[in-house]
Amino acid sequence: MLSRRQWLTRAGAAVLAAGAAGRGSASGLTSSKLARAGASGVTESAEAGAPPEAPLALKDFQPKSMLHVPVTNVPRARFPVIDIHTHLSFSASSKNGVALGEKMRYSATPDQVLPAMDRRNLRMMVDLTGGVGQGLEETIRRFQTPHPDRFSVFTEPWWERSDQPGYSQFQADELQRAHQAGARGLKVLKTLGLYLREQVTTGPLVKVDDPRFDAMWEACGALRMPVAIHTSDPEAFFLPIDRFNERYEELNNHPDWSFHGRDFPSNAELLAARNRVVERHPHTQFIGLHVGGDAENLTFISECLDRYPNLHVDIAARIGELGRQPRTARRFFDKYQDRILFGTDAVPRGIETPQQVFGDQLYEIYFRFLESEDEYFDYAPAPTPPQGRWRIYGLGLPEGILHKVYFANAAQLLGINA
Ligand SMILES: [Zn+2]
Fold it and tell me: What is residue 24's DSSP assignment?
């Protein structure tokens, strides 16, 4: 956090920069000059009146809202919560975005996350990326076996075998084995559609509705294992990284998240293929992660939900999108209150994506968004909004909807009794 002094100094620099632009000053306002100005004891107005020297870099601009509006603290969710979208484990190796092998790495132990879960009224974390084969068994042994009411583990497809003959039946059989091992669902990363290729890591991209996976989708339905599927990404990730891109800073920080150009399909093509899968397997329950892959277009996602009763969505890592269209989002929650699931995409540790770092702060923001009618607050615990420079507005959901979104909808899909 910045001290008030540091902040005033930087705010002064911003004003100076605005003046500098007008007068064409070119020399740089160095950090040492800033530090001296801050320590020199000159009055704030004198600082603001100092001669401008350089424009403020966008990355250094951290404006503080001057709105005097209510701040609601929501340390505990109104009802027990199932977080349907977390990552406590990851495949240990991958190539060109495709997970390879059975070996897993773990970002936390149960003991490292249970205290925050208890403080925030988090009944269960669903670890979506539980892995395959022996890796899956290890993940289940670490989390779900000792705490079956606090952790659920999903399995994943064996991507690296997807180019082998007989894969379709092999993968369907693996689902059965994973189910017996304790896996409670299947997670499909955006790997499908954006990374997986005909020769696994090379060749043309494999389409989301490629028929080799049909037996897998069917097996999930037969075994009552919901499919949590991440398809596409924010719309801006498919556009040039230029001054018109609303997620310019995020893409600038993570250029590998861009799917513009090369041989990537459009987000519309990806979602159309996903929809064909959902349509072809009406007895399989699909959770379209990240608000069904297009949180920017709730009209489209509403059409998808209207068309496919076996489609559900989570809100993970998309309160920044939902919260900047609060009236549309509120109507969306009213209408689809039985098919929206609470999720965060939480990952213990890590600093790259503050909107996903597991902990008290993250959950407080989500609860505030869902429960309060607060205005214009940060969607992530970060000095700068990491997914785009805007702030969000709370939905103030009534208890009936909160209970469904926090718990009941996920409990039903996972076969958990209340
Ligand atoms: Zn995720």
Answer: T
Q: Residue 268 C-alpha to ligand 1 middle, in angstroms? A: 20
Distance 356 CA to ligand 1 centre (A): 9
Of 322 and 355, more confident: 322
CA gap 335, 368 in Å, rounded: 21
Q: How far is the CA of 41 from the centre of ligand 1 (A)?
A: 48
Q: Residue with structure tokens 């098919």?
A: 339
Report how far ligand 1's centroid is from the alpha carbon of 128 (Å). 7
Strand partners, 187: 228
pLDDT of residue 351: 75
Distance between CA atoms of 19 and 146, rounded to whole angstroms?
Answer: 62
The answer to whether the beta carbons of residues 130 and 140 sit under 8 Å apart is yes
CA 225, CA 155: separation in Å to the nearest integer?
10
Cα angle, residue 288 at apex, residues 284 and 290 outer, rounded to 5°? 160
Distance 55 CA to ligand 1 centre (A): 37
Residue 60: both structure tokens together = 């250094």
Predicted confidence (pLDDT) per residue in 107-154, tens digit: 999 999 999 999 999 999 999 999 999 999 999 999 999 999 999 999
Beta bridge partners of 65: none
Element (H, E) at 277: helix 267-280
Q: Could you tell me the distance, in angstroms and rounded to a whole number, from the CA of residue 230 to the centre of ligand 1? A: 8
Q: Which two tokens stand for residue 122?
A: 């988090």
What pLDDT shows up at residue 47? 53
Query: In 72-203, which residue ranges form alpha helices assigned H by DSSP?
Result: 110-120, 133-139, 167-181, 191-194
Average pLDDT, the chain: 90
